[in-house]
Amino acid sequence: MKVKNVALVVFSMVAANIFTGCTPVSTLTGDKLVKQAQSNLIVQSNVDMTDVNVNTLIPGKVKEIKVKEGDNVKKGDVLLIVDSDTLAAQQAQVQAQIETAKSQLNAAQAARDAASAKLELAQNGARPEEIDQAKSAYDLAKVTVDRLKVLYDQGSIPKSDFDNAETQMQVAKDKYDIAQSGARPEDIKAAQAQVDQANASVEAVEGQIKQAEAALQGVNVNLNYATVTAPEDGTITQVNVEAGEVISTGMQLIVVTKTDEPSILCNVRETDLSKVDLEQEVSVKIPAYKDEEFKGKVVRINKDADFAVKRATNDNGEFDVLSYGVKVELTDNDKPLRSGMTAFVDFGK
Questions:
Q1: Of 10, 21, 27, 292, which has the fewest CB atoms closer than 10 Å, so is most exposed?
Q2: Which residue ranges does the record assign to the YknX-like beta-barrel domain (predicted)?
Q3: Distance between CA 246 and CA 61 in Å, rounded?
Q4: Is 230:79 a contact under the CB 8 Å cutoff?
């Protein structure tokens, strides 16, 4: 009777193990299942892919969305367009300001050239031919006065005509005298002041043009920002806005997942870290492709521990067993993978 009771207990334990799935498993990392097969270090983890958050550098209203979730995109592809009508109006306004300022610059430069020529004349004196011209003008004015005096004495012309001729003769004489003797110091000083004023006007207008061109450059940059493009090749995994929605800078608008560079981050306990080396080639099994074996390479071993996977016990020598992150990149993948897929990485013996 006791034998039957013992047999019944044994059968109950076996049945419990079968129906609860409780089989001896060696847990080598904190929250990841790690299996040992023929003394190989096999670590369970998940496929990881880099998510790139796409936002805008200018606020505004979404005019058009060019993609949807699941679309594959290349770097530079247009994802969405922000309404830029206001920016276009600013661009036209600034361009008009630049054109006006350039016209003002031409006028200021012409005035400067005239003032410089006048100063040069005052400083250097008249050329011989200019003196001859002044003398000829004076001689002609003198002859005219003599002729009109005879007519005036005869009563043939009014006194105003004779007075006007005398005035013109005096002006011609003064010019002739100046041409012979050169400009007075005060005349040179006045000419220099005109040149200085003209230079200041040119510099002021040039400053206005530079300021307007800088403003135009800023508007053009913002116009470029109105077209939001893909920063990397990948798949659109999130579209968080709709056409017509008002957005601000820094908002996560779209997420592009880089599916062409899948990796696996494994948590390896320190007691097994001797089996892992940088550039080490590993094999990877992904249950989604149960008949496929993928190749990978260790590209990073964290210098600092991530967490303790086992606390100090008598079994492990009274010390905490720490876990280190090990990144594996797949090297020959030609299968469509998804972020989060279960993966088993075999580091060998």
A1: 21
A2: 267-345
A3: 4
A4: yes
